[in-house]
Hints:
By secondary structure, this protein is an all-alpha fold. Helices cover about 75% and strands about 0% of the residues. It has one domain (about 5-85). It is built from 3 helices and no strands. Helix 1 crosses helix 2 and helix 2 crosses helix 3 (about 65-85).
Amino acid sequence: MQLSQIVYDFFQLYFWVIILRIFLTWIPSIDWSVPFFRALAIVSDAFLGPFRKIIPPMGGLDFSPIIALFALQFIQIAVVKILLMLGL
C-alpha cells in the first residue's frame, strides 16, 4: 500500500471521528468522562479547538466544526496530491 493511500485513509478516519463527536454532542445524557468518549473528545478537540477560538458561536450555534471539516478536507487533498506527485 502506498503512503498516499495510508495518509488518505487516516484523514478519512479523522473526518469521521470529528463527525461522530459532533453528533454525540447533541445527546445530553452522554457521560464524557467514560474513557471512550473522553478519548474521542481529546482526539477531535485537538483539531476543533483552534477553530472554536477563531469562530465564536452565533445565535447559540457553533459553526466552527463546519469550517474545520472544510479545512481538514483541503489539507487532505493538498497532502495526498503532493504525495502522489512525489510517487509515494
